[in-house]
Design a protein that fits this description.
By secondary structure, this protein is α/β, with parallel strands linked by helices. It is built from 10 helices and 7 strands.
């Protein structure tokens, strides 16, 4: 599946719910997020993680390969009154200085990377005592709920393919393979946390959220996206008419200390 989130940057910026404040508060309690922390946000997309880090006083560099996504991220940061250094660069070869950062975060994106290369690059970026955080904020398809019905509809328009996060754990919002990734890369002190967050969406916002998905706006032709959107509107009106929809989501985060330099 050829995925280009830049094609759907407008819907992504407007309709995808970002990581909840409780996620950043948890990083604060873990001692990872504090005023002055030097942070890198890999695969920033429209900057939801970068803005949260900056709101809590971090000095943030945020990277992505997509120019349209970075344009949306810059606009949202400016509207929020936040100073973030956005740069176009891949997670595997950031071009940033070695040992210059206290925190590296990959939010909702680790599955898109060359994961061994990204793990090595994060280790290179981190100063002694620094930490890598891999985080997800996933919707949960449960029997009979709107997520399950929506995913079934998506599969009728884009069958026979799955985004990497679906194959690797998105259906339950947990990612055991990331422990193996970091263990094989020599990381230590692996710790994780998870909690659930019900997230409200209007019908319009849920349709926008779906258009911003890998299997929809980021990969289907525009005419197919429009057809799917119309079908989803009809499905919501018939089966889930109450607004707002309450979409179950799960936060998952894995924290780790990089290996010592050889």
């Amino acid at each position: 599946m050829q995925v280009d989130f830049g094609r759907t940057s407008s819907d992504y910026a407007k309709h995808r719910a970002g990581f909840p404040e409780a996620f950043f508060e948890r990083l604060v309690r873990e001692g990872l997020l504090r005023p002055g922390v030097r942070a890198v946000d890999l695969g920033t997309g429209t900057g939801t993680v970068a803005r949260g880090l900056a709101r809590h006083g971090g000095t943030v560099k945020a990277l992505d390969v997509s120019a349209p996504m970075l344009e949306a991220a810059r606009r949202l940061a400016t509207e929020a009154g936040l100073r973030i250094d956005f740069q176009q660069a891949p997670a595997e070869t950031t071009g940033l200085p070695s040992g210059a950062f206290d925190l590296v975060v990959a939010g909702q994106c680790w599955h898109w990377f060359d994961r061994p290369a990204a793990a090595r690059e994060a280790a290179r970026l981190l100063a002694p005592g620094g930490r890598l955080v891999i985080a997800h904020f996933d919707w949960l398809p449960l029997p009979g709920n709107v997520v399950e019905a929506t995913e079934a509809l998506i599969d009728t328009f884009n069958p026979g393919t799955a985004a990497p996060y679906v194959l690797l754990g998105q259906s339950v919002g947990l990612y055991p393979l990331w422990f193996r990734d970091l263990g094989e890369a020599g990381y230590t002190a692996l710790e994780s946390f998870t909690f659930d967050v019900p997230t409200p969406y209007t019908h319009e916002a849920w349709r926008g959220r779906i258009r911003a998905s890998a299997k929809v706006g980021a990969s289907l032709p525009p005419e197919e996206v429009a057809r799917l959107d119309a079908a989803l509107a009809a499905l919501l009106a018939e089966r889930f008419p109450r607004e707002p929809l309450v979409i179950p989501h799960r936060v998952f985060a894995l924290m780790a200390t990089p290996p010592l330099p050889a």
